[in-house]
Amino acid sequence: MGRHVATGTFALTSLISANAVERLVPQASQNFTTCNNSGALGLSDFEMQRIGVAAAVSFLGGIIQIAMFVLHLGSATFLLTEPVISAMTTGAATHVVTSQVKYLLGMKMPYISGPLGFFYIYAYVFENIKSVQLEALLLSLLSIVVLVLVKELNEQFKRKIKVVLPVDLVLIIAASFACYCANMEYTYGLDVVGHIPDGIPSPRAPPMNILSEVVTEAFGVALVGYVASLALAQGSAKKFKYSVDDNQEFLAHGLSNVIPSFFFCIPSAAAMGRTAGLYSTGSKTQVACLISCILVLIVIYAIGPLLYWLPMCVLASIIVVGLKGMLIQFRDLKKYWNVDKIDWSIWVSTYIFTICFAANVGLLFGVVCTIAVVIVRFQRAKTLSLKNMKELENKVKTEVEGENLQLVKIISINNPLVFLNAKKFHADLMNAIQKDNANNQTPDDINKCEQNVLLNSTSNGTCNGETSQPYPNEKCSVILDCTGLTFFDYTGVSTLVQAYMDCKGQNVDFLLANCTASLKKAVQYCGHLESDKHIFFESVSAAVGAIHLNKNLSKFSDHSEV
């Protein structure tokens, strides 16, 4: 599991499991056959029946994730493109906010779910707008303002202050104390959390007789929880420069769902708020998660019952503000529109399907759309661009007056650059550069090298075991010929920008030749390279000439200093 990812309750998976609970054990019903759990933790038999359904969803969802790990389905995560994940998580966050509306407004509302349930909820709210509880509404607004304001101040001054103010905890304590002192539950009729049992129940198998009835929700928990957790893990891995095993994430989250289900726990996934807290405290290993788990146990055994007086509207406000990171992903629409309008269309359609139906339906729709679009675009793409490698070699040697170009590598992209081949492109490019730095080779041996399916190297490959001495004092350069790059998507452009940053970090000049106007615009916008326009050249020969000119200027500068 990602080093900075904290596992816990997740709003999206909780909402999916709540659908199963309300469908099988609705609030108005008292008849449901399960194991006799009466008296556990001081809860009624009806409450234990509802908890048992959630535990069954967690158990089956974990089994599905472990099965996916065994089948190595983590290798298929390249189908989960950034626009699809962004749209799905944004739509699911919208569902969670909608589920909290009745608490924010203090309204009594029947449980509404199913297709288009999102719109039925708001229709009910507007039809019964007069039943809004003014005290709950004002307390919700005050809580949201305080949370947003303090969190923004924490973000602005996080470099100057050593300890970030835990505003969520402070608000919970303050609201519970105020509600207790003012007796708001009876004076103003505010809904409160109520009795919270302390301790952990004895391990017991979840009700197996209802597993067949919660298959749909279990698949939703398995897929949505995994995708959201993987996105968070990959984000932290990219930020802190380490890698994440996509397939191992299935096993980690599967066990995190199966084992706790025997203690009547609801489905879990990566907790966005706790993960953000790990970022801010500078944690580097899973030891920080272990410490937070110990603190959670202390709350369960000692502090939990004290939260009886916490107003539900305040708790709903904390949940809504905690989803801010997902909700502001609407801003991604601008970059998708500027880079690839088809990705923009996929984002919008996936979001619409998610809010109209469910997160798992939106995810499936987004993946299917992405595959269909790539198939259509590949069918319409131009054939591979073939070059006369010997002619290009002679042309390069002539333009630099026959000087040895051992430290210049020319690479041709012969395929579209999209999410299907972006990872392989980056790996092949980095391997080619690293091999070139380790064993430089004369251009005379280029025509003996095997041509890669994705990359065609026209110089400096390592082949036939023939190498020459490297030039440690010379700066290496890479020229990427984009003639064959017929189309691209956001993932492909991001990979291209990442390759540029990686080369820059290794002190390797990275130049792009024969770029289309749309590719230049996308690379500059995606990588914020408006000031680095010198990396684009009209042709390979122009790029080689620029390298030769810079080399001569460098030598002239060195002689001047002497």
From TrEMBL:
Q: Name one GO biological process term.
A: sulfate transmembrane transport
Primary localization class, coarse: membrane
Domain of life of the organism encoding this protein? Eukaryota
Tell me which CDD domains the record gives: STAS_SulP_like_sulfate_transporter
* Record key words, sorted: Anion exchange, Cell membrane, Endosome, Ion transport, Membrane, Transmembrane, Transmembrane helix, Transport
Could you state a single Gene Ontology molecular function term? Answer: chloride channel activity
Q: Where in the cell is it found?
A: Apical cell membrane; Basolateral cell membrane; Lateral cell membrane; Recycling endosome membrane
Establish whether keyword Heme is in the entry: no
Reactions that this protein is recorded to catalyse: sulfate(in) = sulfate(out); bromide(in) = bromide(out); chloride(in) = chloride(out); hydrogencarbonate(in) + chloride(out) = hydrogencarbonate(out) + chloride(in)
Query: What membrane topology term does the record carry?
Result: Multi-pass membrane protein
Which residue ranges does UniProt annotate as crossing the membrane?
51-71, 109-126, 132-151, 163-183, 214-233, 254-273, 285-303, 308-330, 350-376
Q: Where in the numbering of this chain does the STAS domain appear?
A: 398-547
The stretch of residues making up the signal peptide is none
Recorded hits in InterPro entries, A to Z, give: SLC26A/SulP_dom, SLC26A/SulP_fam, STAS_dom, STAS_dom_sf
GO CC terms of this entry: apical plasma membrane; basolateral plasma membrane; lateral plasma membrane; recycling endosome membrane
One Pfam family from the record: Sulfate_transp
| Entry annotated with the keyword Cell membrane | yes
Which family does the similarity line name? Answer: Belongs to the SLC26A/SulP transporter (TC 2.A.53) family.
PANTHER family listed in its UniProt record: SULFATE TRANSPORTER (PTHR11814)
Recorded protein name is: Anion exchange transporter
Q: What is the lineage of its organism?
A: Eukaryota, Metazoa, Chordata, Craniata, Vertebrata
